[in-house]
Amino acid sequence: MSRAPRTPSFRDHPLRPELLALYAEAEALLTGVTCEASTDCCRFGVTGREPYPTAIERAELTRGMQAGGVRLNPTSSPRTRLKVADERRCPLLDDAGRCRVYQARPFGCRTFFCERGRDASGDPAVLPRRELQALGRRIADLSARFDPRDPGPAPLTRSFKA
Predict the structure, then answer these.
(1) The pTM is what?
(2) Were 105 and a residue from 15, 109, 113, 131 both cysteine, which residue would form a disulfide, CB within 3.0 to 4.6 Å?
(3) Closest CA to 32 of 104, 161, 103, 128
(4) In degrees rounded to 5, what are phi and psi of residue 99?
(5) What is the DSSP code (8-state) at residue 115?
(6) Sequence spans of domains, the chain
(7) Are 156 and 53 in contact (CB under 8 A)?
(8) Of 88, 96, 101, which is closest to residue 41 (Cα–Cα)?
């Protein structure tokens, strides 16, 4: 009996270094910007917004989940489920509210700042929106090369439905 060929890991995909380089550019643009309530943006029901990762970003998220043993299991406690439903918490947060795939998080998570974002002096941060938008377009172009048949970005909460 022969085994089916194994799907290669995204870790070794030739476009992954380009994605990681774009993520590094985004982080460089945001050096010095912080947010005291750094996981508020991970509560989609509170903010009314959620990230829309592209196909290549979903592949990186999946790689990060596999590397960290992250599974999207429903919470066992009905009380916790209700709280999560009201907040529409990101399914990648742990019980303490921390991202379980922080290094693999998509561009939308890396660049989402609310009015609480502050610069090094504590003043409201002025974000380089034009440069960030250009990076977003470059990620979309990279994703089109990665999977030309993909219809485009999708809400994070729909990206990992069984």
Answers:
(1) 0.83
(2) 109
(3) 128
(4) -70, 130
(5) T
(6) 13-159
(7) yes
(8) 88
